[in-house]
Task: inverse folding
């Protein structure tokens, strides 16, 4: 069994629990976490004794998304306005940088999607941006009543992901993909993002119950029937939609506008990530669902 710095890998029954383990950063994705997670997926996939994977997060978040402290909001930006480029950077290199990064990101989700070992998502808390995409790419998704989903990164000029459209449908995906609004676990269940919502203390037990029931079925049968669903959706166009998603994501990231972005960057330089997020999300408060909603504050 490999040793990982950013994830916990624990055998449990006939499966394995992989835990995103950067709790102080709300399990935000940096290169180390991404690398460890996909290496752990490969380790589980290659072990014939592992019949299912449970994916969850340490602490109060599943994952808050990409680690903004490494980029937007970190206070170290040297953006040159009005074009939103870095000092000395060409438009061509800026676009190529984002195309490379976004295509790599989609390939990671495809890697997860096309595993032959089923992944059960135990969504224990905040699942935002990239965190929501990883959560929704799990093959079966169980949410704690504390779970919150959203794509608030679109508010700082970024992209949504087609996995929301596949699961929630066109109308719901646009409702939340064009605003970045938070949704709670019950709304996620209503629109089809998750299979079930359970009390927080029952989350791992429920996921283990499902995993152990899967393990009662012949492993070859499980692999084939998982492929019926995942590869069938790929044949219907999901694979192509995700590839197009990567190309359009690069355009979204490079469509910088000074009137939308500069105040966030200036706030980040002066007050760090917290100030950046306040400048970004303040106009959207209260959220329609979750702990930052008006109902939660009453």
Result:
């Amino acid at each position: 069994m490999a040793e990982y710095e950013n994830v916990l890998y624990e055998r449990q029954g006939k499966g394995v629990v992989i835990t995103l383990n950067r709790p102080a950063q709300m399990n935000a994705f940096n290169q180390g976490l991404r690398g460890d997670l996909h290496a752990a997926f490969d380790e589980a996939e290659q072990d014939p004794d592992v019949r299912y994977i449970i994916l969850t997060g340490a602490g109060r978040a599943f994952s808050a998304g990409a680690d903004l402290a490494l980029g937007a909001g970190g206070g170290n930006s040297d953006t040159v306005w009005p074009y939103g480029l870095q000092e000395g950077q060409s438009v061509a290199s800026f676009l190529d940088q984002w195309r490379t990064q976004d295509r790599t990101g989609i390939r990671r989700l495809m890697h997860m999607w096309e595993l032959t070992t089923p992944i059960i998502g135990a969504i224990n808390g905040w699942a935002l941006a990239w965190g929501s995409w990883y959560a929704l790419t799990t093959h079966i998704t169980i949410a704690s009543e504390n779970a919150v989903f959203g794509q608030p990164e679109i508010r700082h000029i970024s992209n949504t992901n087609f996995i929301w459209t596949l699961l929630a449908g066109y109308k719901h995906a646009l409702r939340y993909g064009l605003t970045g609004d938070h949704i709670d676990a019950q709304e996620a269940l209503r629109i089809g993002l998750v299979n079930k919502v359970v009390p927080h203390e029952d989350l791992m037990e429920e996921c283990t119950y499902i995993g152990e029931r899967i393990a009662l079925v012949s492993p070859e049968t499980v692999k084939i029937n998982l492929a019926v669903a995942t590869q069938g959706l790929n044949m219907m166009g999901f694979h192509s939609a995700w590839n197009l998603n990567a190309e359009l994501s690069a355009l979204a990231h490079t469509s910088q506008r000074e009137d939308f972005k500069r105040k966030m960057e200036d706030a980040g330089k002066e007050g760090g990530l917290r100030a950046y997020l306040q400048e970004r999300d303040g106009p959207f408060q209260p959220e329609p669902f979750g702990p930052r909603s008006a109902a939660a504050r009453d």
